[in-house]
């Protein structure tokens, strides 16, 4: 799935987006100009490298389509009202360095797939309703500095 489609799938899984993600639409291919989206030239073209939708009072869930943003380096969804679980597909974001999902209403376990994120340096999931053990495999992330 190309990045624009992935971003629109992510938008659909959120609620309270009407006035917040107004510019997120499929009328143009210029998703790099959308609110909270940062792109950079990687390899053969533009890739989404950062998604910052923090403190926008978004509800709904985090879409598995997040995993389609293969070159993303930073995801910041903190300070919203997101529910549901952290999608396993997050493990497909192999370039991810910064992941902040704090201050939401997420539940379930921290997915083991996060352990596949070998570039990850910062993981913040505090102030959610997560349960279960912290995956011991997180110790296999070589650069993780903040948990």
TrEMBL record:
Residue ranges of domain Leucine-rich repeat-containing N-terminal plant-type in the record: 4-40
InterPro entries, sorted: Leu-rich_rpt, LRR_dom_sf, LRR_N_plant-typ
Keyword Lipid biosynthesis in annotation: no
Subcellular location per the Swiss-Prot or TrEMBL entry: Membrane
Residue ranges of the TM segments: none
Record keywords: Glycoprotein, Leucine-rich repeat, Membrane, Repeat, Signal, Transmembrane, Transmembrane helix
GO cellular component, one term: membrane
SUPFAM superfamilies (alphabetical): L domain-like (SSF52058)
Recorded topology in the membrane: Single-pass type I membrane protein
PANTHER family: SOMATIC EMBRYOGENESIS RECEPTOR KINASE 1
Name used for this protein in its record: LRR domain containing protein
Taxon lineage: Eukaryota, Viridiplantae, Streptophyta, Embryophyta, Tracheophyta
């Amino acid at each position: 799935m190309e990045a624009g489609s992935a971003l629109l799938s992510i938008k659909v899984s959120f609620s309270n987006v009407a006035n917040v993600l107004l510019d997120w639409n499929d009328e143009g291919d210029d998703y790099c100009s959308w609110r909270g989206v940062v792109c950079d030239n990687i390899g053969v073209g533009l890739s989404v490298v950062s998604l910052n939708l923090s403190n926008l009072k978004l509800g709904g869930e985090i879409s598995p389509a997040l995993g389609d943003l293969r070159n993303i380096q930073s995801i910041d969804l903190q300070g919203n009202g997101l529910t549901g679980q952290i999608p396993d597909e997050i493990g497909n974001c192999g370039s991810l360095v910064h992941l902040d999902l704090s201050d939401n209403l997420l539940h379930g376990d921290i997915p083991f797939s996060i352990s596949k994120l070998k570039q990850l340096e910062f993981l913040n999931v505090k102030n959610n309703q997560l349960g279960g053990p912290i995956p011991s495999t997180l110790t296999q992330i070589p650069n993780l500095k903040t948990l």
